[in-house]
Amino acid sequence: MINVSEQPVQPAPRSLIVTLYGAYGRFVAGPVPVAELIRLLAAVGVDAPSVRSSVSRLKRRGLLLPARTERGAAGYELSDQARELLEDGDRRIYADAPSADEGWVLAVFSVPESQRQKRHVLRSRLAGLGFGTAAPGVWIAPARLHEETRNTLRRLDLDVYVDFFRGEHLGFAPTAQAVARWWDLAALAEQHEAFLDRHAPVLRAWERRAGTPPEEAYRDYLLALDSWRHLPYTDPGLPARLLPANWPGTRSAAVFRALHARLHEAGALYAGVSVPARRL
């Protein structure tokens, strides 16, 4: 098991660029100039060479497209695929508390031995979407993840290998016990605790302040969002009644919501964009 709390706190530049576009860059009218990307990433400790190399990698993956601004400056805009990925991410990152009785979606797949690499990719993607393993070739997640999972597998041309089913768990083991078997709850809790260790002190510091300076708000919000946005994928938002008492995911979600409410709009001033209000 990877001990998240022992990993370096400094986020990867490529991840921060994706986070920047998700939080602010997609609301820019036209491409974001390269010079502006360098300015905005410098505020969170990323130097210019790292920005350029990370942008190149995102360009090769088809997520960023080179374009010119109205004034002729070189810049980058999101591809249609990237926009769809960010919209899928919004439904996770800014989700309400999960319903107690939404049911489950099952993904059952069979991949020919001659295409075993696709089997590996399929397993990796289902795990990355927050699915747990109910049995070999049978993956399970809260039912609300069905649409996003369908979109993801279609983008990867993996949908032909998968059947989806929706239903409820009827036993024999109590559902809370089954959930503890399908997901590694200890590892998920550790990731939430790591988020709290890094960002709960930031929230407490802001709660003691009267003003919200835009540059500081931008920096703290971008770093918090970059940490938080991965959690709703590893932890799919399981119903609270099925989780251990004092589940840290409840506290980490509350910290992120409070940081978002305090910092997001002020950070937009530093980023030079107008963002839609998103109340959590």
UniProtKB/TrEMBL annotation:
InterPro entries associated with the record: PaaX-like_central, PaaX-like_N, PaaX_C, PaaX_trns_reg, WH-like_DNA-bd_sf
Residue ranges occupied by any Transcriptional repressor PaaX-like central Cas2-like domain in the UniProt entry: 99-179
Domain Transcriptional repressor PaaX-like C-terminal: 183-270
Location of the Transcriptional repressor PaaX-like N-terminal domain: 13-82
Domain of life: Bacteria
Pfam families cross-referenced by the UniProt entry: PaaX (PF07848), PaaX_C (PF08223), PaaX_M (PF20803)
UniProt protein name: PaaX family transcriptional regulator C-terminal domain-containing protein
Lineage, top ranks: Bacteria, Bacillati, Actinomycetota, Actinomycetes, Kitasatosporales
